[in-house]
Amino acid sequence: MRRLTPISRILWCICGAVGLAAPAGAAEITLLTTGAYKPVAAALVPRFEQRTGHKVVLRNETAGAVAQAIRDGVRADLVVLTPGGFDALIREGRLAGAKPVPLATVGIGVAIRDGAPVPDIATPEAFRAALLQARAVAMVDPASGGSSGIYLARLFERLGIADRMKDKLVLVRGGLAASRLVSGEADLALQQTSELLAVEGARLVGPIPAAVQNHTVYAGMVPEGAAEAEAASGLLRDLAGPDAAPVLAQKGMAPPGP
């Protein structure tokens, strides 16, 4: 029998250790999610990975970009999107499978840079005044397909300030609007609460007034034909399970309700 050299013994031990660390049957799950839900997924995924040995590759985009990626042929084992986004993709024949499972709901909030004066946003009138008094307001570019940006553009029309807001908007094509507070580009940031809370150096003032609020539901679906459907279904159960509730609260979201 051929003897192993010292270096070969080391490599053999390393390979054995790697084999033990990656259980047989471990899967690599691709999770494609909207940006608003990403902070929750990022908090829950490590627990799932540790318990199951599976690995999750997390990719996030705006809701519109997630839908477009699927139209462009991107394959994912688990998709998190709005129910409306799923309905459109299913009607178009781009997705099929079990009914999407509601995971979370979130409203739009207002953030400022840490240490900046806190504006009054308690009523629609006060919120409108705060927007008009701000030097610059950061939000997701509606053209990028972000749910909050699309809604806010319509809200400005309802409030009668769309024309006055045009020159002060700092539009973010996906990503975190509150990052523009930290950079000094904006005084206010408007986005879903979970995304505002994700930016260090930004402070959440609170939700926009209830009379003009818009809550978005996010759901998860394992597409028919997913490469890792069984493992992805296990991840979806975790995301929809009772252990998700405290994480949702911490990240500015809430359970979707009945």
UniProtKB/TrEMBL annotation:
GO BP: any one term: molybdate ion transport
Keyword Lyase: no
Signal sequence residues: 1-26
GO molecular function: molybdate ion binding
Family matches, as Pfam families: SBP_bac_11
Keywords: Signal
Keyword Transferase part of the UniProt annotation: no
Protein known as: Molybdenum ABC transporter substrate-binding protein
Source species of the chain: Methylobacterium terrae
